[in-house]
Amino acid sequence: METQTPPLPELGQSVPARAGDLAADAEALALAERVKSSANWFYWIVGLSALNSILYISGVGFGLAVGLNATRIIDELVSEASGAARFLPLLFALIPLGFFALLGYLAPRFRAAFVVGFIFYLIDAVPSLLLKDWIGLAMHAWVLFSFFTGFRAAGELSRLRSSNASGVVRACVSAATAATLGRSRVSDSRVSPGKEERHESGT
């Protein structure tokens, strides 16, 4: 009794997804969301730092703890200006703000952006430590932890994509091998009856 092999999918026919593939896709989606969530902190820093500068120019006596200390220092350096020059802090603040906005764009694509952002934001936390601004220091620590988790998630996502890519290559090779064996079996089955007829006529 001959064993029947399962039919191979025709060209263009979708192959049912395996449970392992679905689990890998779900894990990749979760990691990508974690990377994106961590990278969004760069934009939060930019927005809240700009808001701090606006509040300072307006004469409000408080600021937000998540913002950059660098922009606060710039605000203090030009605080003696008057008239239209009071808006100079916003112009000088564009340098660190633009830098962090660029890191926010690059972080989901290049995990090294998390390392660069971590280093600069760690340096930015020094004034909070020296001034004993514990709330600002705690917020800096939380954002630094988010950068670390984003960096780690980006590494896991890269390794998962690499393993999936190698798995796809192996699956393609296996499918090609199975297709070749299937065609050879079909050709053998077509040739076999002719051989049997010639053998019968010879006898």
- End-to-end separation: 26 Å
Shape: elongated
Rg over CA atoms: 31 Å
Biggest beta-sheet profile = none
Low-confidence stretches: 8-15, 167-173
Please indicate the percent range of residues in DSSP E strands (runs of 2 or more): under 5%
Tally the beta strands: 0
Give helix % range.
Answer: over 70%
Number of H/I helices: 6
Q: Sketch the topology as an H/E string, one letter per element.
A: HHHHHH
Mean pLDDT: 77
What structural class do the secondary elements suggest? mainly alpha
Summarize the topology.
Blueprint lengths: L18 H39 L11 H9 L10 H19 L5 H13 L1 H5 L3 H69 L1
Commentary on this structure:
With 203 residues, this protein is mostly helical. The protein has helices at 19-57, 69-77, 88-106, 112-124, 126-130, 134-202. α1 (19-57) runs antiparallel to α3 and α1 runs antiparallel to α6 (134-202). The protein is elongated, with a radius of gyration of 31 Å. The two termini are 26 Å apart.
Q: Quick gist of this model?
A:
By secondary structure, this protein is an all-alpha fold. It is 76% helix and 0% strand.
